[in-house]
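Technical annex B. To support the medicinal chemistry partners, we prepared a structural model of the target in complex with phosphoric acid mono(formamide)ester, based solely on the information shown next.
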Amino acid sequence: MIKHLRDAGDLDAGNATLILDTARELARLTGGREVKKLPTLRGRTVVNLFYEDSTRTRISFEAAAKRLSADVINFSAKGSSVSKGESLKDTALTLQAMGADAVVIRHGASGAPHRLANWVDGSVVNAGDGTHEHPTQALLDAFTMRERLGRLAGLNVTIVGDVLHSRVARSNVVLLATLGAKVTLVGPPTLIPVDIASAEVSYDLDAVLPTSDVVMMLRVQHERMNASYFPSAREYSRRYGMDGARMARLPEHAIVMHPGPMNRGMEISPEVADSPRSTIVEQVANGVSVRMAVLYLLLGGK
Ligand code: ASP
Ligand code: CP
């Protein structure tokens, strides 16, 4: 197994499948048990280093490490000496001195996990870096697709919306290509980057719905926008929002995903978000199993 998980490209098909299979086994071992803990990472230390806000990823990495009996240190930049100007490198060396076996990092700068891996001895796991990648999100998405649809190879996955700012989309494009699914990116031309290989591009959502097995809606990331990329929220929803009428155009078996957090009423209507075809809550639950598998395999747990 690899030492670090910095990008989805760190995983070949064998390692990615091993993570998904291990996640399934860990879910089976801990699901439904009154005591959800396994002793596998007893005595190991996992540091969660969060420079950007997070609900799902932060909580699920914490839950995953605790379920494997690791010691967990949660560090969030807010309230730390980062506000006194301390650099990422000095923060990393401080964590290193405390004996971190794994550092899970979310950072606003693309590439921060790569820098960090040069400064610490332990494993580095990318929990989202700028607009670059979010590999454990792609793994939990792949896990969810495989659980719901029984396979990944040959699936038609349509990723819709603000691809330009989406590290989720970037990691999914890479991982799904590794695992043999076909990805189509859909959105306004201003929000589709020109540099994404191994995916088709369409600007017409209604045209691709009838052949999609999976539709992954992306959040419009207002906080990363410094210009106006579409005329209005209403116009965006009209062309690229998933509502009940569009959901009805999907094949019967198709699922609707969203990494969260959602702008309800903009990229996805409440009717769709809360429908049985939506996997949004399952994605969160699967995130714990997948992150357990990642920590377990990277740290060589027994
Ligand atoms: N939560 C995901 C991320 O941090 C997606 C999003 O924020 O829209 O990348
Ligand atoms: N999907 C995701 O990464 O959510 P958070 O930003 O809440 O962690």
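Notes passed to the chemistry partners:
Residues 280-298 form the longest helix (19 residues).
The chain has eleven helices and nine strands.
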